[in-house]
Amino acid sequence: MNSIFANRTNGYLASIRKGISAVESFHSGVSCGQGSREEQLERLKGEIENAEAVVIGAGAGLSTAAGLTYSGERFERYFGDFAARFGIRDMYTGGFYPFPDKETRWAWWARHIYYNRYIDAPKPVYPKLLALVRDRDYFVITTNVDHQFQRAGFDKNRLFYTQGDYGLFQSVDPALQMTFDNEEWVMQAMEAQGFIRDADGVFQIPQGGVIMKVPSALIPKCPANGSDVTMNLRSDKSFVEDEGWHRASAAYADFLLRHEGTRTLYLEIGVGANTPVIIKYPFWAMTGENPKAVYACLNHSEAFCPKQIETQSICINGDAAELLDSLLPDGAKPL
What we know:
Blueprint: H1 11-23, E1 30-31, H2 37-50, E2 53-58, H3 60-65, H4 73-86, H5 91-94, H6 102-117, H7 125-133, E3 138-142, H8 148-152, E4 159-161, E5 164-171, E6 179-181, H9 183-193, E7 196-197, E8 203-204, E9 229-233, H10 243-258, E10 264-269, H11 280-289, E11 294-299, E12 305-306, E13 313-317, H12 320-327
Parallel strand pairs: 2-3, 2-10, 3-4, 10-11, 11-13
Antiparallel strand pairs: 1-12, 5-6, 5-9, 7-8
Helix pairs in contact: 1-10, 1-11, 6-9, 7-12
């Protein structure tokens, strides 16, 4: 690790180690919580209201509930030309496609970044979540890379994006452990493909269509040394954990430390089975260590907890958008 980060607590690694260690002790099976759906919703309302701290752990399911879907109509609308030419069927797999040249590859990524980072989600799920915890002492850890928490107004000092940010590039040179904002480049690359801004300032496809290339002169380069760049997304050991990442990791560790032993709600939303060691397992572990803590899992179809923390857990299956609606008082619901 770079020496400038040596004295900072790595909350990311610390929580992962805690989670992995704890999972070995959860050996009595799983539970879907106690009580009916309505009873668990009422209990969760009370826990949000009375908790001394709320730790939100958000996964891809939260953004899916907000309408940031990677396939179907939304994909066909913005990437229909890529689908027709290359047979790509969704945004996720498209990110790994071996495009024939850099101009096409970066045209793809400009669209991918723009429609998942620089516009608001179609549904106000993130504003609803903020309305729910705005007056609470909260912190957010998320594997999402779409920046929707900040777009909704969450305090950036209370956010930890563990897996990167669509809004950042990093150099392919491993000696450069820094990231670079890409907003200006993305806007230029969208215009170069022929996208036109609508009355709300959002890029749309004009009647004449768009092209699937950016000019060679627009292929992004590292401003520090002119090297090639790639996305700042965790996929292997080349992922750059920059100054901002380490600052957020330390802030997360500090928040957890300050609230050890207090009435803490670990609110997990939309976390699947792909990366349970980052949020789910650590939340289970911290709940098990603290008799005052409560673990709440909101998931479309995978809401469960270990038997050992069943009495401290709330597990509710359902769409996050609908569940947040149920939790919010009418007067607190954003438009």
